[in-house]
Amino acid sequence: MSIADRHLDSLMRQTATRNAIELIHPFAEPQTIGALAYVAECYGFRYESVRLVGKQRVVHVQLVRDPSPVARQRAAANTAAFPDPGPGRPVPGMYLGSLTPVPEAQADVDLLTSLIRYEALEAAANRAQLMTIGWGSAVLFLLMAVLTGKYAVLLPLAVAMPLGMSGALRINASRRAKLAARLTAGGCTLVRDEHGRERYVRPVPHVA
């Protein structure tokens, strides 16, 4: 069984038995995650959120069953058209045996992938946490320099740590700005959720 087939097998088992599913593929390309989320939405789910888990900041993508009439219509139509989806069998929007979108699904997959990437970068951009790490490391290196006398080695590290964290934040902001432009061009709307966080909301996805 190919990697794509294994991903699809796991996804279809979740969509058949759960009202909330989670995509966890640490080494998968963002486009793969976007394609899997697209297939899930074809069967009545909707993208909910991203969270980063553990020291490796592994991306976990949550989707929930969508009770709206449009989602139910989409799920019914795709169930009729693809009654037995899974490994080695056709699934909506993908070439057979792969997670490569067909042309008519490409724009939706790209938009969903951009949204997932944007929210993952936003979750990673915890300025307070990163700068605390940077300045905490700087203080530690300064103390080590005083205790060991190795100023030539440790002082540059003390300076580099907060600068590195600040640079990482700037790179993150630049990447998010580019993704935000793609989301806006794709028809997404910037809103503030119940927690006060700004998020992009997509148009109704790929109606069947």
Structure description:
There is one protein chain. The protein has helices at 3-17, 30-42, 69-81, 103-124, 127-148, 151-185, and strands spanning 20-24, 45-53, 58-65, 189-192, 198-201. The two termini are 29 Å apart. Strand 4 (189-192) and strand 5 form a beta hairpin. It has one domain. Helix 2 (30-42) crosses helix 4, helix 4 packs antiparallel against helix 6 and helix 5 packs antiparallel against helix 6 (151-185). The protein has a 3-stranded antiparallel β-sheet. The protein has 6 helices and 5 strands, in the order H-E-H-E-E-H-H-H-H-E-E. The chain has 208 residues and is α+β, with helices and mostly antiparallel strands.
Q: Order of strands in the sheet with the most strands?
A: 1-3-2
- Gyration radius, to the nearest Å? 21 Å
Distance between the termini: 29 Å
How would you describe the shape? elongated
Give the structural class. alpha+beta
**How many helices?**
6
Write down how many β-strands occur, each being a DSSP E stretch of 2 or more residues.
Answer: 5
Uncertain runs are none
Content of β-strand: 5-15%
**Nearest-integer average pLDDT:** 84
Characterize the largest beta sheet: strand count, sense, and whether it forms a barrel.
3 strands, antiparallel
Features:
14% strand, alpha+beta, elongated, three-stranded antiparallel β-sheet
